[in-house]
Structure formats: structure tokens, C-alpha cells
Design goal:
Length: 542
């Protein structure tokens, strides 16, 4: 039965504001942590309904994940998103429902929406309980927001809801664990299961090439003073042979105000400079590499400083995609035979030089998707091996069932097949994962025998600039063609004119999905031309 009373009492304990106007955006709900209480009730309720609606072959509800995080946002923000049974994001056609529930001002309105769905799905599930897992990053508000969810679940009998509270998790861990609860072949649904899967596959790949962990590049990892620090430490404790190869900086999770401050993947990518805690001497040491995670450890960027000049050199999501593509396409050519289709998915933010490299040098198909992980993920799934990365470092490689079936045929007599199958274990199949991506990068460098400098030289980024323009109403900006062209307002032809006057020029305008602003990207052959193009387009938008 629908637990009307229990739900009402928790709803009223965390009442919504006067005129709620929340929206489930690119990465769920994300805002000032003090405003999230009522949203937690809405999200936890919707997650129950989602679980009841996702039945396995025995008509039992599958496990749904709830992740409380605001990624690279400042410490005082927080957010929450729902993770589907296979570890992917809540489907887009459910997002408006999340928005509607969060914007109910009274329990009456709320019940009117949720009760019919709950009743319908619960009866299809023969009243079996919904199943949930929940986790949070290290933000100060995390435990409080998490307890609103558990308070709601605890107010129902366990005939209605069964949940597992993991407290502190990285975003990719929560995705992995959610999937593992529903798919035993994926892994053991615990943190140690996750660490074992990563270290086993990583060490087995090295072993196939007789690479001892001692000869790997030494990596300094900036963990953004976030959850990644605790998790990387825990991972290294379970893999002692790797612990001397990874040094952790920015690991202060005890002081929540340090999260993402002057450090982390977003800081490094946006400012194109070293984070606190890594100086240019450290960053220019031989046989070494630096890396930054973001606040919830689902994004990775790498970098180093050129030795004589001490110049900062970024290896962003585009470069990571190219490195992994090089390894994977090399392995594919070593297979006895195959008809697997590899593709690379990027967004409009990908540097034009990286896209040219994909198309002209790697001769791989390149697809442009809208910004936001779910869009890239969706496109990548269309390939047998889909490599997707946002320039900001969020990405992964998806290997299809056809891939597994084809390669199993060669097991035992093709090293390349064995390595490819292990890469499927090493690289998180659910979502971008800084730790798993970092291990894949380190393995790729060792196998391809390239160092950071040579990796950086694969191609040279065109000068580019990203500007933020605050406008009256960003909803007036409507894009098409994977956000590369504007439909409204009618300024696209003017942008086209400016681009045509610029050597290797490219520019686009898109409304942000996370902030009340419009973003303008410009790229050109020279720094000077790039700045001019950026200025011209910003001027059109203002
Ligand atoms: C969200 C997205 C991120 C994207 C960013 C763009 C997820 C999990 N996160 O943080 O991938 O790059 O939004 O922000 O999808 P913007 O729309 O404000 O430019
Ligand atoms: Zn993140």
C-alpha cells in the first residue's frame, strides 16, 4: 500500500520553499546545500518509484542508486542524482518528473503525482520492496542530506524499501556498486570489490607485457581535497605493489572548506595552471606525471611542466581520449581478425586539433554529442568500442557485448584479445572514473612506451578561449547540431561571418546547463585571432 502518512510526515518535516523553482539538470539537482532538504525527499521518493518500475526477469525491483555530490562546485553547494540499474544516469524522460516532484509546494500536490505511479509500479512488482543504495562525497552537508533520505526509508517498513547506506563514496564507486547489485557478473557490490576489480585487471595487463610496477611513470595525484583522496589511499592500501608509484596531494578532507579550492581537475583545466601543492620542480621531474581528480573523482586531467622552460602542459580529456584510442586501435590491429567498430565521441568543446587527429591520423569515426555525460554515453553505446571524453576530463570507454563475444573466441591464443578484455574490466563501464581512467592512462603509457612529453606532442591544441556571458535569460538561446549552431536568437549567420574571416576559426554559443549564463567558445590558428574571434562573438551575445 502507498505509505501516505509516513511520507507526509517526512515531507512536512522538510518543507519546500515558498515558490520552488528547481530543475533536474545535466547532473541532477545542484545548488546551495541549505536549499536541498525538500529536494532530498523528492529524489528519495522518486528513486523508490524508479526501482519499482525497473523489474528484473523474476519481476523483482532492481537496485537504484542515489548519489549526493556537487562535483567540482564550491564547498557550500551540494547536489543529488539518481543512478539507473546498469549504472547509467536516470533516463531523460524521467527528469521532468524529478523536476515536478521537487517543485510541489504542498504534500497534496506531491501525493497527487507520486501516488498513482507508486501504486501502479508496486502492483506490477507484486508489492516486492524497492531497493536502493546511497552514497555521498566528503562535503560537510553530505551526512545531513543523506540522513533525510534514510529517515524517509526508515519511516517505511522494510517490506516497502530495502536500502544500503555506503556513506562516503566517489561518484564512480556508487555507479559501480549500483550496477553490481543488479549484475553479478559485473563485480562484487562493495568498495573492496571495486578496488579488487581495478587492481587485478591493471596488474594482469602489466604482467602480460612483463612490465614491473617499479618501471611505471611516477604519478602525483591532486585529489581536490575531496573524496578521491580517501578512495585513492584505500585503493593503494589494497595494492601495495602500486603504492610507491602514486603520491597523493590535496587530501585534506577533514577541512570541508578546502574542497576544490585552488586545486582539482576543474581548477587545472579552467586556469591552465598547476594546482596548490604541486610546484613546477615536481611537475618537471623525469619519468613523472601529474594528475588531478575533481571533487567526486569522476573527472581526470593530467599535466606536467616542460623541463627547461617550466611551461605548464595540459593533457586534458581530448588527449586522454587520443591516448586510449591509440592503445585500443593498436591492439585491434593485432587481432587475428575482427569486424569491430571503434568510434570516438567528443563535444563541441573538443579542440579542433584533436578531432583532426582522430579523423586524419587515427582514421576513426568521430561523433560530436551535446555537453553532459549522458549524451556522450548514449552516442558511445552505438559503437562496439565507444571512447568518449569531454575536454574537461570526464569520460570512459564502453565495450559492447558484441566486443566481448568476438574477443572470447581468441582467448588463449591472442595477447591483444586478452588485453582488450582486461581493459573492459579496468575501465569503468558505467561512467567516467578518475581512478580507473588514471590507471588506464598509466598502463597505456607503459605499453605504448611513450612518456608524458611524447603524449603531449601527439598533436598541438589550437589556441582557444572559453568565455562566460551573463545574460537576462539564457533560455532564449536555443542550439542545434550538438550545440554547435544557434537557432535562436538570430545571430548564427553573423557568427559564421566572423568564423570565415578567421584562420582555422571555430566558435559556438550555448546556454549553460548548470549556471545562469551563456558560454562562448572560440578557437583559431593563432592566439591573437582566437581572442579577436572570442571578443566578436561575445559582443554579439551581450
Ligand atoms: C555537468 C556535466 C558535465 C558538463 C558540465 C557542463 C555530468 C555528470 N556533468 O557538470 O559533464 O561538462 O555540466 O556545464 O553530466 P555547463 O552546461 O554549465 O557548461
Ligand atoms: Zn565530478
Amino acid at each position: 500500500a502507498f505509505p501516505s502518512q509516513a511520507l507526509e510526515s517526512v515531507f512536512n518535516k522538510f518543507p519546500p520553499p515558498q515558490n520552488p523553482n528547481f530543475s533536474y539538470g545535466t547532473a541532477g539537482f545542484r545548488l546551495g546545500a541549505s536549499k536541498l532538504d525538500s529536494i532530498m525527499v523528492a529524489v528519495a521518493s522518486l528513486a523508490i518509484v524508479r526501482s519499482l518500475s525497473c523489474l528484473d526477469e523474476t519481476s523483482t525491483p532492481q537496485t537504484i542508486g542515489i548519489m549526493i555530490t556537487a562535483s567540482h562546485n564550491p564547498p557550500q553547494d551540494n547536489g543529488v542524482k539518481i543512478v539507473d540499474p546498469l549504472g547509467d544516469m536516470l533516463p531523460q524522460d524521467w527528469e521532468p518528473l524529478a523536476t515536478k516532484l521537487a517543485n510541489c509546494a504542498t504534500f497534496k500536490e506531491f501525493e497527487k503525482i507520486i501516488k498513482p505511479l507508486w501504486t501502479k509500479y508496486s502492483s506490477a512488482a507484486s508489492s516486492k520492496p524497492a531497493k536502493l543504495v546511497i552514497g555521498r562525497d566528503t562535503r560537510e552537508s553530505g551526512p545531513r542530506l543523506l540522513r533525510i533520505c534514510t529517515e524517509l526509508f526508515d519511516s517505511f517498513s522494510d517490506k516497502l524499501v530495502i536500502y544500503r547506506n555506503f556513506e562516503e563514496l566517489s561518484t564512480p564507486e556508487l555507479h559501480y556498486i549500483t550496477r553490481s547489485f543488479n549484475d553479478v557478473s559485473f563485480g562484487v557490490p562493495s568498495e573492496s570489490g571495486y578496488y579488487d576489480k581495478l587492481s587485478n585487471s591493471f596488474l594482469r595487463i602489466l604482467k602480460l607485457y612483463d612490465i614491473s610496477p617499479d618501471v611505471l611513470v611516477s604519478t602525483t595525484v591532486d585529489c581536490a581535497n575531496g573524496v578521491g583522496a580517501d578512495k585513492l589511499k584505500a585503493f593503494l592500501e589494497t595494492s601495495p605493489s602500486l603504492s610507491s608509484k602514486f603520491a597523493i596531494v590535496n587530501s585534506d578532507t577533514a577541512d570541508p572548506l578546502q574542497l576544490n579550492v585552488q586545486c582539482g581537475a576543474d581548477f587545472v583545466k579552467t586556469n591552465q595552471k598547476l594546482p596548490n601543492g604541486i610546484d613546477s620542480d615536481l611537475a618537471s621531474k623525469d619519468l613523472s606525471l601529474c594528475a588531478s581528480f575533481d571533487g567526486d573523482a569522476d573527472r581526470l586531467v593530467c599535466y606536467f611542466c616542460d623541463k627547461p622552460s617550466k611551461k605548464f602542459i595540459l593533457l586534458d580529456g581530448d588527449k586522454i581520449a587520443i591516448l586510449l584510442s591509440r592503445l585500443i586501435s593498436t591492439l585491434i590491429t593485432q587481432l587475428p581478425e575482427n569486424n569491430l567498430e571503434i568510434g570516438i565521441v567528443q563535444t563541441a568543446y573538443a579542440n579542433g586539433a584533436s578531432t583532426s587527429y582522430i579523423v586524419n591520423k587515427l582514421k576513426l569515426p568521430s561523433v560530436c554529442a551535446k555537453t553532459g555525460v549522458k549524451h556522450l554515453h548514449h552516442e558511445a553505446m552505438k559503437f562496439d568500442i565507444g571512447i568518449y571524453f569531454e575536454a574537461n576530463g570526464h569520460g570512459t570507454v564502453l565495450f559492447s557485448e558484441k566486443f566481448t563475444a568476438e574477443l572470447k573466441k581468441f582467448e588463449g591464443h591472442s595477447k591483444a584479445a586478452e588485453v582488450l578484455l582486461l581493459l573492459k574490466e579496468l575501465i569503468n563501464q558505467t561512467v567516467g572514473d578518475a581512478l580507473s581512467d588514471l590507471l588506464a592512462v598509466v598502463a597505456s603509457l607503459a605499453i605504448l612506451k611513450v612518456d608524458a612529453a611524447e603524449w603531449a606532442n601527439t598533436y598541438h591544441d589550437l589556441p582557444n578561449k572559453l568565455s562566460k556571458v551573463v545574460v537576462k535569460d539564457r533560455n532564449l538561446f536555443v542550439t542545434t547540431d550538438a550545440e554547435r549552431r544557434l537557432v535562436k536568437p538570430p545571430i548564427q549567420s553573423k557568427i559564421d561571418d566572423f568564423v570565415l574571416q578567421t584562420k582555422q576559426g571555430r566558435s559556438f554559443v550555448r546556454p549553460s546547463g548548470t549556471e545562469d549564463a551563456v558560454r562562448v567558445y572560440a578557437e583559431a590558428e593563432t592566439e591573437e585571432e582566437c581572442l579577436r574571434l572570442a571578443e566578436q562573438v561575445v559582443h554579439l551575445v551581450e
